[in-house]
Task: structure prediction
Amino acid sequence: MRQLKLIWDFRGPDALKIAEHHVIHLKEYITIKNTQLNITGVETINDMHCIAYMVVNETEMKPIRDALKPHRGQVYQP
Result:
């Protein structure tokens, strides 16, 4: 089954702190909704751009996308 990485972009001097805080909320959502996967994280693109992400199975993507409104997504490759 294909896995998708839902991505939230944060920009500015506080991007890392905001992305780390966003992951807390993503983990809360995973616990509440009991999603099939429990993969989240933060990546630093550069000093002014960080992302928070959540990996979901393709079958779960639409309701999660509609509820959490990620900025973009891509196929997940571990």
Q: What stands out?
A: Strands lie at 3-11, 39-46, 49-57, 72-75. The CA atoms of residues 56 and 67 lie 13 Å apart.
